Amino acid sequence: MFTTVGNRGTMHLGLCLRVLILSALTVPIRAAQPAPETFTLTVPDGPTSTLSGSSVSLLCQVSPLFNAEPLEVRWYHSSNSHSPALLYKDHKIQEAPVDPRYRGRVSLTGGMERGNVSLTLERVTLEDRGEYVCQVTSEQWYEKASVFLTVNVTGREPVLSVAEARGGGGQVNVTCSSEGWSPQPKLTWRNKEGTEIRYEQVLNTSDPHGLVSVSSWLLYASSYSDWLACTVYLSEEAKREGRILPHTAVPGVYKEAFIVTLILSLVIICALCSVILCKRRGSMWSSSQKSRNRSETEHLIEGAENTVLTPTEQRAAGKEVNLKAVENTVQNPTEHRAAGEDVHLKGVENTVQNPTEQRAAGEDVNLKGAENTVQNPTEHRAPGKEVNLKGAENKVPRPTEQRAAGKQDHLEAETNNSIEGAENTVKTPTEHTASGKEVHLKENIILDEKTAHPAIRVTQGKQRAQYIKEKDAEKPSVRTHLHVFSKESFSSGQHYWEVKVKDKSTEKLSWYVGVARENVERRCNVPLTPQNGFWILSYDKEKGFHVNTDPQPPITVAELTIVGVFLDCDRYTLSFYNVDTKSLLYTFTDVKTSNYFAVFSPGRCDIYSIRII
């Protein structure tokens, strides 16, 4: 019994092995079979639609299915058959001759070994719409088919206005207009309850760029509560709506509103004039007080100068000046008290000004050498004489006399030196500590492995991202964009981090860094544009540095190894810095969303990584 079961198991195992070997031998033969003598092309029956700025695939499939790699594939716009958008020949895409409008934006979707010759067109513009021809040629046969591409452009929000109807009767004329659509949109009117209102008057016009403007108007009963809604749309995803109350303002209401506005304006103007007048009076009183103090000080100085000759005047008179002997002729207050004499200190504080008072009086200040000319009371050691310090300040030459003796004003030199030391470099947000400005420390950003493309490997404490061959990835993906998001999110405040995008000894092919909003479609192949929630700085070896705006402003950088990213959630700005040269590269000024995530991409087919430092 057991022998029988064993023989049956061996027979089943041998049968399975034969089936597997037969399958392995059959599949390569089928894939490698030559092109048939004749074939046809399968394309969509209707037009292919896409949004402006997105990517689209124009489908084209050979039938029966066979390997189309040895064939010639030509895609061209029907208006320009001599300059193809893409030419595949000799097992590779040819660089010329091709239409320059499509350079860098077209590629084959892939799967030519299965007969798939579809075209992928990126960054679609309105000029790309129209008929495209897919032509496939073999040595014995050729076939071609047409694919129609329509580009949808969502226009501006409708502008509504109300005017009195000519006939009166309590009705008003409501107008709705919107521009910038492609193709021609639809327009509907609805009331407050959502009921659609029928209308007959509608006008469509086209501008030189092919964009359509639509206008409509209708007569409606005047109302202050029953609003009207005008909706212009291409689809549920691409529509604009505006609302208005269908009534005109009463002339009496306008008159009353004008009078009230005029009175309030006059009151505010009078209040502002009163405040300015009070400030001017206060400043005038302060100026007059300073002038009075200055004149009194000058009068005291002039009176003292006439009584005591300064050393400069004594030299001019031919006399010897012995300052050493002067020190021994004046007693200090301690010696006067010991001798029973009175000491008169009155007037000292009124005659010797400190530097602050001299500046207030409008005089020049020279602090150099002044401390060596004013003697303190303990240096006047002459017994038997009365000390009166009222005129002592005359032994100190005035700044004007010091300047005549060849001295310089050191405060002016110090001020000039401080100004000349200023630098004109742009500081990064981490360098505003010495000047007392707001300080932004670098964030310790951690990468979220769960959001990484399967072809990206996250290492070194989840702060390094590196591209790996997609065939080596554990889970192959159909996602076009290779990037990874940060684990942290930001909703308020200022945040700064730095990314080392290359070493000086290496040559990166491509990369991009920036931020994305929280609810962005992470698993779909949406274009990386601000409209789709991405704000990034990119580098491509062929295109150079650029941001994802339309049009793309030129960014000229000689060398860039470290990128500084500064996100201000409160001001809705995102700035990129060249940390090597401490210069600003670009600033997005309208980055509005509730929550932000940092986004990083090491590029495609690039062995060198990027990392957060």
TrEMBL record:
Membrane topology, from the record: Single-pass type I membrane protein
Sequence intervals crossing the membrane: 257-278
Single GO MF descriptor: signaling receptor binding
Any Gene Ontology biological process: regulation of leukocyte cell-cell adhesion
Keywords assigned: Disulfide bond, Glycoprotein, Immunoglobulin domain, Membrane, Signal, Transmembrane, Transmembrane helix
Main location: membrane
Protein name per its UniProtKB record: Butyrophilin subfamily 3 member A1
Similarity comment text for this entry: Belongs to the immunoglobulin superfamily. BTN/MOG family.
Region (Disordered): 368-435
Signal peptide coordinates: 1-31
Subcellular localization(s) per the UniProt record: Membrane
The organism's place on the tree of life at top rank: Eukaryota
